[in-house]
Amino acid sequence: MDQHAQRHGARAARSHGTVETEHGATAATRSLEKSPRTAGTMGMKERARHIPATVSLPVITALAFGCFIIFRTHTAGIKGGPAMLYGLSGAVVSGALGLIVVHFQSTLITETRAAAYGALFGCSMGWVYSLGGEAILKSCAFGFTMGAVMFVAALYVFRTHRTREPHGLHRPHEHPHHRRGERSHHLPVATH
């Protein structure tokens, strides 16, 4: 409450043309008074630097996917506005689904997480393939193939980078006191 009163006191003093320290003006408020736009710009730059990869990567991927959709529909003969609409809708839907998968990936086991990435990629690529005028069965086969490729690639990446997985290694961790021959008072691995 005291800070609130100080801010209002400083505002009242500024409105009369003087800023006195007894009315609550401090050095910090004076520096912000001189350049409020600079302070706002610095805040935006700091926030932009701290955007996590779990948000920025799906958004960037969705934008690239939207551009690919525009290219694919444009080469298929759809011109102008409809091609842009396809690209925008594909970017929004794939971006939202990508953010959902990335948000919940820490709760999924490795195989399920790889299947989620494979399903998202396969469905997206199958839909884009169908925009070129291909038959539905051929588009489904293409999407299934691309999804299987993404599943294998994601599974390989998740399995080879086990230390970065949210659930840790798939094998039990070896504790340092086990190596020295000391007895442990922990539960057996099977009961964890």
Q: Which residue ranges are poorly predicted, with pLDDT under 50 across at least 5 consecutive positions? A: 28-33
Q: What level of helicity do the residues show? A: 55-70%
Give the tally of β-strands. 0
**Spatial separation of the terminal alpha carbons:** 51 Å
Major sheet attributes: none
Average of per-residue pLDDT values? 76
Q: How many separate helices?
A: 8
Overall outline: flat
Radius of gyration: 28 Å
Which series of helices and strands comes N to C?
A: HHHHHHHH
Q: What's the domain count?
A: 2
Structural class designation: mainly alpha
Which percent band covers the strand fraction?
A: under 5%
Essential attributes:
192 residues; 2 domains; 8 helices; 0% strand
Mind sketching the topology for me?
Layout: H1 2-15, H2 27-34, H3 36-49, H4 53-75, H5 81-104, H6 110-130, H7 136-160, H8 176-179
Helix pairs in contact: 4-5, 5-6, 6-7
